[in-house]
Amino acid sequence: MNPAGFQQFTRPEKLFGLFARLTVLPGVGDKVAGLLKKRMGSHVIDLLRHLPAGVIDRTQRPSVATIEDGAIVTMEVTVMAHDKPPPGSRRPWRVMTEASSGPIEIVYFHAKGDYVEKLLPTGSVRIISGRAERFNNKVQMVHPDHVVSPEKASTLPRHEPVYPLTAGLTPRVLARAMGAALEKTPDLPEWIRGDVIDRFNWPSWKDATVSAHQPVKPYDLLPGSPPRARLAYDELLANQLALGLVRTTTSRDQGRVFKGKGDLRQSLITTLPFSLTKAQERVIAEIEADQASPHRMLRLVQGDVGSGKTLVALVAMLGVVETGAQAALLAPTEILARQHHATLTQLLEPLGLKPGLLLGKMKAAEKNATLEGLADGSISIVVGTHALLTDGVSFHDLGLGVVDEQHRFGVRQRLVLGDKGNGVDVLVMTATPIPRTLAMTAYGDLQSSRIDEKPPGRKPVKTTFVDLERCDEVVDRLRQAIASGRQAYWICPLVDESDSLDIAAAEERHTMLTAAIPEAFPALVHGRMDADSRDQAMEQFRSGTARLLVATTVVEVGVDVPAASIMIIEHSERFGLAQMHQLRGRVGRGSDPSSCLLLYKGPLSETAAARLNIMRESNDGFRIAEEDLKLRGPGEVLGRRQSGDPEFALADLAYHADLLELAREQVMETLENNPGLTGEEGEKLRLLLALFERDRAVTYLAGG
Fold first, then answer.
1. What CATH topology corresponds to 59-156?
2. Would the pTM of this model clear 0.85, i.e. be above it?
3. Pairing of strands 102-108, 138-142
4. Which pLDDT score, from 0 to 100, does residue 636 have?
5. In the CATH hierarchy, which top-level class contains the domain 462-618?
C-alpha cells in the first residue's frame, strides 16, 4: 500500500536552504558544525528548532547602590584605572570604573596580553552588560558579556536568548550561527486553516520562527506563547497528517468479512466461571463491527493491568476461526508467549481446539510440526514470538494478527504480520495504558478501544514506600510473610554491579536474599539468562517451589502467578510510573490481600516524591499514565524509541493536548475531502510534511 503521491521522496526546492549543512552558514566551519551537531543536528533547520530556554533582560540600569547580587545589569561607565597582575601571577586583572551612581570593578581572569587595555582604555566611556556581584562590599562584574562604546550602543541587544549548550560551544558562537540561520529562513505558504490562524492570532511560520528566537519576557518562552504554540501546531499537524494518510490508505485496502454464526464465541463465554465486564463487551462489539466490515481492521486495544484483554483477543480470534481462517498472537518474549499459550490451551480445550506454539528456540521436531500445521491449516490459532515474522513461516489462510504489548515492537513488525495473508485484520494490544495524546501521536494510524474496567473481585493493591536504609526491616517482614505461606517478587533495575550507578544488582540481591531467607528458595530471572534457565526459574516460582522471585523488569508484562501477593521494587525512584504500575499488576490476582513496597534511596527530589505519591494514591493505570506524561515526557512514557514513533522537537504533549485535537480535526476534514493531497491545498500540506520529514514516515509506515 502506498498513499497517493508518496512513492518517491522529493524535497521541495523551497526547503533546500533549510536542509543545507550547517557549514553553509558564515563563520560555521567543520569544528563548530561538529559541536552544533552534538546538541541539535547537522542542518540549518535543526538549528532553528533549538529554541531558547531563557532570556536575559539587558534593559535593567539600576543605581550602583540598588544592584542585587547576581542581577544582570547594563551600565555606562568611565574607565578610571587598571590593576594589572604581574607576569606569572594568578591574580585577576581588575579595572576600576565609575558609573554616575558609584564605582564598579570589572574583573578578568587569565587575561592575555593587552586585550583588556585595548577593550577598556583608561579614560574611555564604555557600556558594559553582565552579571553583577557584591564582593567585599564592592560591586563587581566578572567577564562582562558585552563591552561597547556609546557610539555602538545600538548593537547591544536589549533582550538576549539563552540556549542549552554543549561542551565547547560558547553562547557567542551559537548566537552568530543562529543569527545566520534566521537570515536564511524563507517565507513559506500557509498550510494552517485560516479560521485556526485567526482564532489564536498566530504569526506566519517564518515570523513565528524568528520571534521564538527573540524572546523579550519569560512568557515568550512558554509553550503557550503564540510563536511557540504555532510551531508546535505545525509539528503536530505534520505528524497527524502522516498518520492520517496511512490510516486512510489502509482503511481503503480491501479486507475480508469475518462473520460467522458466533457459536465458538458463545461456547467460550459459556464455559467461563465469570461474566464479561461491560468494558470487555463494548470492545468486543467494536472489534466485531470491524470484522464484519469489508475493510481491513487496524485497532489498538488498551487494557489496564488485569482488565482481561487477552480474553477479548481470544474472542476476536474465534470469530475468524469460525469462518475457516487462522489467527496468530505475537508476543514480545518467550516467557509471555509460553504463558499465553498455556492460557489459550486451557480456554480452548473445552471447545476442542488446540493452539500451536512457535518460538525462536524450540526443538526442531516441534517447530516443524507447527510450521506444517500453519501451512496446511490444521493449526487454526498460533502463539509465537518474532519467529512468526520470519520468511520461513507461511499460513494456509491468516485472517487475524494480534500483536501483544505493541510498545515492545516497531511499527514495521506488525505490518509484516499483516502481510502474512490476504486482507489480514490486525489487532494491537497493550496492558500499558497510554495517555490519549500519546495514543494519537504514536498509534494514530489505528482505531482505538479502551478496556477501562477490571473484573469484579479484583482487589486494589496497597502501596507504600520505604527508604532503602530500612532494607533489613523489609527483609525481616518478608521472611515472616513467606513463613505464612505467601509468595513475593523482588525487582531490581540492573543485572549486575555498575560503577557509575549506586543500584543493587539482581544477582547481588539474589545472593543476599538466598542467605537471609533460605527457606524461600529464591529464584532469579533476568534478560541475560538463556531462555531455558529463565523458563526453569519462572516455573519454580509458578509452582510454588520458589517462594521468592528476584528479577529485573523482564517480568514487567504478562507473567501471571496468582499466588504471588507481594511486590517489592528496589530503587523505585529510577522507574517510570507506568512501568511500576505494570510491575505492581503482577500481584493482586489471587484471593490474598496484596501489597506493593517501593524502596527508594533518599533524599527524594520534589518530582520523585510526587511520582511515588501518585503510585500510593491510585491503582488507575490511565490516570497514572497521564501523570507520567506530565512528569517525564513522551519518550520515557512510551519506553524505548520505536520505528515510526514521534520525537517532537517543538510540541509538548503534556501542554499542547488541545492543539493535538485540533490538528487531528483539520487532518480528518482535509483527508475526507482531499485524500490525495491534490491542488494548491495539497501542495502546501506536502510542503509541511517535507519540512518535518514526515513524508518519509508516510512512505515507511505504508510499506513503500
1. OB fold (Dihydrolipoamide Acetyltransferase, E2P) (2.40.50)
2. no
3. parallel
4. 47
5. alpha beta
